[in-house]
Amino acid sequence: xxxxxxxxxxxxxxxxxxxxxxxxxxxxxxxxxxxxSISPEEIRQKAIESSENIKxxxxxxxMNAEIAFGNDSSLRSAMxxxxxxxxxxxxxxxxMKMVTIMDRYKESFQIESESYLIxxxxxxxMTFPNGTHRWVKTEMKNYSWNCSSQIEQQVDxxxxxxxxxxxxxxxxxxxxxVLELKPDLDKFVEFMTTKQNDTQNISLxxxxxxxxxxxxxxxxxxxxxxxxxxxTVMELxxxxxxxxxNKSMSIRQVMNMTIELYDINKPVTIELxxxxxxxxxxxxxx
Length: 286
Prior knowledge:
Structural class: alpha+beta
Largest sheet: 12 strands, mixed
Mean pLDDT: 82
Shape: globular
Strand order of the largest sheet: 7-8-9-10-11-1-2-3-4-5-6-12
Radius of gyration: 27 Å
Distance between the termini: 98 Å
Strand content: over 45%
Order of helices and strands: HHEEEEEEHEEHHEEEE
Number of helices: 5
Number of strands: 12
Helix content: 25-40%
């Protein structure tokens, strides 16, 4: 009798454990379904809407570019730029520091620049390889403040792209949705030329642009676009005629740019250095 009770108790425990296991499995499945329920279109729309609430942020940008002239390896050149800065749309101020290393024709040199955008005047400090530097300033007439916003650029790429959801990832400790973007090439060129006030070369750039690939990381808790990676490929066919030599070749440029935003909507202080007050004024060229 005692053994029978013991067996029954054991079977009851087994059944209870199985029920608990089944419940845990069910909860896991439901959680998985919940995380997958949001579509890439919904993520895109929420990111576009939430970006309107971003007023201040700091940013880091890395740009890598390689330029090849046909198959001649001796004519290849490369550029690496590391950019950091801060943006304040409330007070209409932006700061940006850039260090660029150029590797061209087996020679390498470095250029540093520091710029401030205060209202519609841009102040720039150029530091040259010989150690000298110079401050210049330009009044940006008919300037749209949003053109300087990294957020606006990321949102514009979202708007003109087909989107596909990839596996979720974490960026600087923030859980993110990841979207693979396939921008419309013609709209991408129009967007870039409009930002740079260079609408005269739209048709040429449309012929040159061969491919654009992009990814965006959207924070799950705020739907802020906190990271973007864009790869562009451009080609320009050309012909060289020297005496009896006729040669056709193409210039190919591959650029990889990564933008990361952080300290979103936290206070930022952007003050123009005293030495910039005496900057040489130069006219706007576009």
